[in-house]
Amino acid sequence: MDRIFLILSVLLAMFIWGCKSDPVSGDEGNTPNGYVKIYTAEQNNAKFEVWSSTSAVSFIYGYNEIGFKVLLNDVAQTSGFVKFTPTMYHGLGGPQHTTPTDDMFNYDADKSLFTGYAVFMMYDTSAFWAGRFNYNNSAAVDSFPFQIQYSSVSQVLGWDNVTTQRSYVLTLISPGSPRIGLNTVDVLLHESADLLTFTEVESAEMFIKPWMETMGHGSGNNTNPVSIGGGKYRGEANFTMAGEWFLYDSIKVNNQFITRTPPPKFIFDVY
Ligand SMILES: [Cu+2]
């Protein structure tokens, strides 16, 4: 990676985007398929448009449904795959790491996009991000600088496990706005040995426990999340009254708990 180019790009990006504070919204300028173009990255004959169905403005902290349009010499590509590698830099010369994304974004003809997800697992205004876009291992745009916006509904939990020598990232997909009663719980689990490659964990067992800390009670009729493929797990949580609920998630992989005691928890404001 050309370091000078990166530094200049980042400074330029901070200058251009530094004072924007548009609210996160998915309702402005929607295309019929629900995606909005948020970035265009171009280099030589390759152009990658980034579309999002999560935010109309930018990438956000947490889970993002995104799609790419790829143009080579201005011709839209409709087969093959896109790989997307966002890297987070904690200051120039400081630590850097990637973040969980779909391994491969495949073409969805209904949406006219190469679709998938990216999880921006950290929000830190003093750090910066740059992305690499790769089409079919034959065309790429590197060092594309961007900023993410904070989202108060996003939740990403991370922890290390000394036994497996892995870091784990548990991302909340839904609910964003939980209601009293049964809520579908969708989460995404990744592991990483080096914070440079994140892998979806397919074979985990999950055990959830809703807990209303202020009143010291849980709830019944919950369904533990089970794998639905692609590192995603779906279950059901029963929040029986309004107020703040914890949702603990104990996770086993290969019959061993990879979570600590107490297990990681999401926090919901139920109304
Ligand atoms: Cu970071």
Blueprint of the fold:
Elements: H1 3-17, E1 36-43, E2 46-52, E3 59-60, E4 62-72, E5 75-76, E6 81-89, E7 96-97, E8 105-108, E9 113-120, E10 128-135, E11 139-146, E12 148-149, E13 156-161, E14 166-174, E15 181-192, E16 199-200, E17 205-211, E18 223-229, E19 232-239, E20 243-253, E21 256-257, E22 265-270
Parallel strand pairs: 3-12
Antiparallel strand pairs: 1-2, 2-4, 4-5, 4-9, 6-7, 6-8, 6-10, 8-9, 10-11, 13-14, 14-15, 15-16, 15-19, 17-20, 18-19, 20-21, 20-22
The structure holds copper (II) ion (CU).
Q: Helix coverage percent of residues?
A: under 10%
Helix-strand sequence = HEEEEEEEEEEEEEEEEEEEEEE
Tally of helical segments: 1
- The tally of domains stands at 2
Query: Which fold name corresponds to the CATH topology of the largest domain?
Result: Immunoglobulin-like
Give the class from helix and strand content and strand pairing: mainly beta
| Count of beta strands | 22
If you average the pLDDT, what whole number results? Answer: 90
Question: Could you list some keywords that capture this structure?
Answer:
disordered N terminus; about 5% helix; single chain; Immunoglobulin-like; mainly beta; ten-stranded antiparallel beta sheet; binds copper (II) ion; 22 strands
